[in-house]
């Protein structure tokens, strides 16, 4: 729907696929060229709209995975069973193809690189995407704020950005990364598969006395569990920011 | 609202960011709203959002009463803020 852009209000833009990277067998990172992109904060997302020739259109929200580089933005899309939008974006969508998007949107689940509080990031599955944007932005901004990431996945093969996370955990001073595997663990791992619980959050997070900013992102049940644990451990609920990836996505 | 009422899975108010930015010039999901039913105050982003209804229905995370409803038609947006006493919008 072409409509003159109103300054300050959100309008649809057309982006084109510049390159793509396969993160796991079912997740794909899309690097899009979006002329006139206004920039964004880590944690913000975009709405993506696909329109078929018969006029049928479907819309989904995706988190931005990295800081913007000029008009270049990155999304990581998880293919969900019977998800019409994600199936297209992770499958047939090819270099040079257009897609409509609007954003950035969301002003609450964001980390500002000028922030000074320690940060705890807790990701469940594809919930890593906006948190990875924060990790990447921290380094890009030269921030020294200490970050801890707890990343829960089913198996080692489900880890997004695996090589980069390994490298950053080694090279980004002040970044700690902890993995929780719920179905299968790497060889030699000290624990059997387990779900995230009080012990993991208490051991690998920050003490509430440091008043860290906590960001929790993942499926609804995961987010509720972790947010409850953080509050029970004594974290101020106002410092626990959550984003749920629902079953309605796709 | 009885607790045993099963409303099914929900998203959260972050999902309202795009639809509301179509109407408002600033992000409203970071605004604090106070629930008209129970008085709980919190970020709009923290509301429970049910998107499988026609449009989006946002409920208070504390009492599950409807705070906000939004329906987008091809030529209009319907915004019903029945359950919010007030919004405090950071500027």
Automatic annotation (TrEMBL), chain A:
Pfam families: FAD_binding_6, NAD_binding_1. Residues 10-111 form the FAD-binding FR-type domain. It comes from the Bacteria. PROSITE patterns: FAD_FR (PS51384). One of its GO terms (molecular function) is 2 iron, 2 sulfur cluster binding. The keyword Iron applies. The keyword Nucleotide-binding does not apply. CDD domains: FNR_iron_sulfur_binding_3 (cd06217). Keywords: 2Fe-2S, Iron, Iron-sulfur, Metal-binding. InterPro entries: Cbr1-like_FAD-bd_dom (IPR008333), FAD-bd_FR_type (IPR017927), Flavoprot_Pyr_Nucl_cyt_Rdtase (IPR001709), FNR_nucleotide-bd (IPR039261), MRET (IPR050415), OxRdtase_FAD/NAD-bd (IPR001433), Riboflavin_synthase-like_b-brl (IPR017938). Its cofactor is FAD. PANTHER family: NADH OXIDOREDUCTASE HCR, PROTEIN RFBI. This is Oxidoreductase. It comes from Phytohabitans suffuscus.
TrEMBL record, chain B:
It comes from the Bacteria. Pfam families: DUF6510. InterPro entries: DUF6510. This is Uncharacterized protein. It comes from Phytohabitans suffuscus.
């Amino acid at each position: 729907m072409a409509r003159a852009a109103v300054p300050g209000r959100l309008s649809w833009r057309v982006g084109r696929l510049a390159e793509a990277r396969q993160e796991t067998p079912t997740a794909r990172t899309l690097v899009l060229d979006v002329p006139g992109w206004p920039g964004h904060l880590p944690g913000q997302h975009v709405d993506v709209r696909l329109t078929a020739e018969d006029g049928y259109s479907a819309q989904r929200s995706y988190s931005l995975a990295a800081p913007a580089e000029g008009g270049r933005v990155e999304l990581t899309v998880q293919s969900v069973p019977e998800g019409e939008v994600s199936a297209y974006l992770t499958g047939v969508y090819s270099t040079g193809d257009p897609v409509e998007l609007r954003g950035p949107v969301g002003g609450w689940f964001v980390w500002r690189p000028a922030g000074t509080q320690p940060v705890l990031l807790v990701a469940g599955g594809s919930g890593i995407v906006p948190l990875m944007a924060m990790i990447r932005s921290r380094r890009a901004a030269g921030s020294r704020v200490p970050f801890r990431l707890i990343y829960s996945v089913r198996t080692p093969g489900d880890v997004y950005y695996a090589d980069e996370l390994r490298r950053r955990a080694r090279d980004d001073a002040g970044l700690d990364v902890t993995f929780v595997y719920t179905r299968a663990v790497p060889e030699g791992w000290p624990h059997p598969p387990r779900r995230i619980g009080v012990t993991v959050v208490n051991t690998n997070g920050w003490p509430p006395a440091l008043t860290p900013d906590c960001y929790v992102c993942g499926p609804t049940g995961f987010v509720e569990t972790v947010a409850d644990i953080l509050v029970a451990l004594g974290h101020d609920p106002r410092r626990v920011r959550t984003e749920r990836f629902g079953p309605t996505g796709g | 609202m009885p607790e045993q009422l099963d409303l099914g899975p929900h998203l959260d108010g972050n999902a309202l960011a795009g639809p509301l930015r179509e109407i408002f010039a600033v992000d409203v999901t970071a605004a604090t709203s106070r629930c008209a039913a129970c008085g709980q105050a919190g970020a709009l982003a923290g509301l429970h959002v049910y998107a499988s209804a026609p449009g989006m229905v946002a409920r208070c995370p504390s009492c599950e009463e409807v705070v906000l409803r939004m329906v987008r038609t091809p030529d209009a947006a319907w915004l019903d803020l029945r359950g919010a006493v007030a919004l405090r919008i950071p500027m």
